[in-house]
């Protein structure tokens, strides 16, 4: 029997909830009125799920408890009368398994709980499977061949998908058991890294050897795994000059430091750094803690030390990228090496072999269909069909028959039996693009497919079992659609088991050169016009343009330019002048008064120009503006500033 703890300070509501839950077959572990009493009940009998009001008696509120629940890996669903503004944002950041708004209907409460348990089960299974695979891969490394650097690279790459990082710094023990040196792995492609031993580190960061030695001597001891986001990250940089040097060099915004066991012969700790703020959570720490023995014992001391030293002494000025050959090398032609796109590729790699549904989110033209195709191609269903359905382009009166099929004579005009898209996809995958366009009726039917794995043809004699993986996509804000009653909450949460959010092109301008090259190669071949590239000033304009139509617009731009080009390079960028960085056309004239956002953007760009683009450190843009670097970074991201 599933155990639910109710945390609610209104006694009438709490008892009403208890009655409903018991009636529906749940066991109620207790009713707590405050965070303190909730914690003591949790310690005595660990519930499977906590139903949690946000406003509670005492100093701590439901969100404080939620943070502790996340740390202890206990699922929870919020229950509240009021979810406005920042409270909702704060609540969402704690990763709840659902929300219930008071006053609630019994049916909605039970559906939300049902969905929460479904998601919990799915995430537990998926998590367990991923963890087992990771643990096995790491154990296999101990006996694998190759030199130690290659082995450590593999460790980095295996961890990558589970603990996202742009830079992994390993602090290595010396022969006397003290700190000896660092070895860093900077991610530069899906499976490509630059390896930085001490010498390379000195060259790239430009710091003096003595400074590195003193930073190493003063390196704080880390006894317990800890993650640093936002202000905590700034504090870490203030206290630890090695971390600061790394953060300043590569513009990192968050970190996770993970010490392995004290008796470990080789590695002292793993330090993960990320360009995105708020990357790390207790879930990452918990995963690493379960792998602690394997992570500490990957090398053989004497062999290792000599190899790192040799590598350091023989290196070039800039370390050459090293590529790891992994089984995953086919992302269906997805081009992109920006950190945010690499994290999309990591998620594809994680979810492909599992059987879970995937929800791909992103603006129009960001590559959602490409991602869906890639997931199918990397799954065990790859030799079975992938059926693509655009829900927006199906005529309203035919959608049901298109999706589920019909029997001959089931309605006027049904002259033959039709096999629907779901049946066509049997054994394989169905990609439902523009899912937000489905009517509520069809959403209910889709929900049934997800729950029961069966469909019913129109006019059919009964349900037909099918085995289809669903990948859905939308460019709509589904949460808003739900609030406004156009999208069903239960379907949303069932699809939301594994969301992949593709960033807009203006949020990853680093990818523009590679995408440009990719499309030039493709279209110059297609039109038989040998074009070598674009002029630097054209590329400059392309980097400044907000690309409201994303990659599709960039692709069309290159195709058009190649068709019109008279020479061997693209010399002109005919880009819509008044496109805004919000992805929507700007209808105002140039003389209009600028918005606060635009003024803020201009101000930041000007300061950045003055500091030669440097954000952190003395004289950096953050210091001049009096802002923590992390805050400046998130403002820049929001405003689409590179
Ligand atoms: N990362 C990428 N690398 C290479 N090509 C890409 C990439 N992303 C998108 N494209 C190309 O851009 C075009 C649009 O991509 P796609 O149709 O997958 O976008 P979408 O998000 O599904 O669009 P919509 O929301 O309009 O359905 C396609 O021609 C696709 O091949």
From TrEMBL:
Sigma-54 factor interaction domain residues: 334-563
Listed transmembrane segments: none
Pfam families: AAA_lid_14, HTH_8, Response_reg, Sigma54_activat
UniProt entry keywords in alphabetical sequence: ATP-binding, DNA-binding, Nucleotide-binding, Phosphoprotein, Transcription, Transcription regulation
CDD domains: AAA, REC_DC-like
Ranges of residues in domain Response regulatory: 3-117
InterPro entries xref list: AAA+_ATPase, AAA_lid_NorR, CheY-like_superfamily, Homeodomain-like_sf, HTH_Fis, P-loop_NTPase, Sig_transdc_resp-reg_receiver, Sigma_54_int
Entry-annotated residues carrying 4-aspartylphosphate: 53
Keyword Ion transport on entry: no
Domain of life: Bacteria
Protein name: Sigma 54-interacting response regulator
């Amino acid at each position: 029997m599933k155990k639910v703890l109710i945390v609610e300070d209104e006694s009438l509501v709490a008892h009403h909830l208890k009655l409903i839950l018991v009636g529906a077959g749940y066991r109620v572990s207790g009713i707590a009125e405050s965070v303190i009493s909730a914690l003591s009940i949790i310690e005595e009998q660990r519930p499977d799920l906590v139903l949690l009001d946000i406003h509670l008696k005492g100093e701590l509120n439901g969100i404080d408890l939620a943070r502790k629940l996340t740390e202890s890996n206990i699922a929870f669903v919020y229950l509240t009368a009021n979810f406005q503004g920042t409270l909702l944002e704060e609540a969402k950041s704690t990763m709840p398994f659902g929300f219930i708004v008071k006053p609630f209907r019994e049916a909605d409460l039970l559906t939300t709980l049902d969905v929460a348990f479904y998601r919990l089960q799915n995430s537990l299974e998926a998590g367990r499977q991923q963890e087992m695979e990771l643990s096995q891969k790491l154990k296999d490394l101990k006996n694998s061949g190759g030199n130690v650097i290659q082995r450590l690279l593999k460790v980095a790459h295996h961890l990558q998908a589970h603990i996202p990082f742009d830079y992994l710094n390993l602090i290595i023990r010396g022969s006397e058991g003290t700190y000896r040196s660092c070895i860093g792995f900077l991610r530069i492609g899906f499976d490509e890294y630059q390896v930085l031993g001490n010498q390379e580190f000195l060259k790239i960061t430009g710091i003096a050897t003595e400074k590195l030695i003193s930073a190493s001597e003063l390196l704080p001891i880390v006894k317990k795994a800890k993650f640093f986001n936002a202000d905590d990250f700034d504090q870490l940089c203030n206290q630890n000059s090695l971390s600061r040097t790394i953060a300043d060099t590569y513009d990192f915004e968050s970190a996770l430091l993970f010490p392995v066991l004290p008796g470990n012969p080789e590695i002292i700790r793993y330090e993960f750094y990320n360009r995105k703020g708020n990357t790390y959570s207790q879930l990452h720490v918990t995963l690493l803690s379960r792998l602690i023995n394997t992570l500490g014992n990957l090398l053989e001391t004497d062999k290792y030390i000599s190899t790192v030293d040799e590598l350091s002494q023989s290196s070039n000025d800039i370390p050459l990228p090293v590529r790891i050959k992994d089984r995953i090398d086919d992302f269906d032609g997805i081009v992109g090496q920006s950190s945010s796109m690499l994290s999309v590729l990591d998620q594809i790699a994680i979810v492909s072999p599992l059987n879970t549904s995937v929800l791909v989110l992103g603006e129009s033209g960001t590559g959602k269909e490409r991602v869906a195709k890639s997931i199918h191609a990397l799954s065990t269903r790859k030799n079975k069909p992938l059926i693509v359905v655009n829900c927006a382009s199906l005529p309203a009166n035919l959608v049901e028959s298109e999706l589920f099929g019909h029997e001959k004579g089931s309605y006027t005009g049904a002259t033959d039996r039709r096999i629907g898209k779901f049946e066509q996809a049997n054994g394989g995958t169905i990609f439902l693009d523009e899912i937000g366009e489905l009517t509520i009726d069809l959403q209910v039917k889709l929900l049934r497919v997800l729950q029961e794995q069966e469909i019913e043809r129109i006019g059919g004699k009964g349900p037909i079992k099918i085995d289809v993986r669903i990948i859905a996509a939308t460019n709509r804000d589904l949460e808003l659609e739900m609030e406004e009653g156009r999208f069903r909450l239960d379907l949303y949460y069932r699809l939301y088991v594994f969301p992949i959010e593709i960033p807009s092109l203006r949020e990853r301008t680093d990818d523009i050169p590679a995408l440009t090259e990719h499309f030039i190669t493709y279209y110059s071949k297609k039109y038989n016009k040998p074009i070598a590239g674009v002029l630097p000033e054209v590329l400059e304009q392309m980097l400044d343009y907000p690309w409201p139509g994303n990659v599709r617009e960039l692709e069309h731009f290159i195709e058009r330019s190649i068709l019109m080009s008279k020479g061997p390079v693209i010399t002109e960028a005919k880009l819509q002048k008044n496109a805004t960085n919000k992805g929507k056309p700007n209808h105002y004239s140039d003389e209009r008064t600028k918005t606060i956002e635009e003024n803020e953007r201009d101000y930041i760009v000007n300061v950045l120009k003055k500091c030669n683009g440097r954000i952190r450190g003395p004289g950096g843009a953050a210091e001049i503006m009096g802002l923590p670097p992390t805050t400046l970074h998130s403002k820049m991201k929001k405003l689409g500033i590179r």
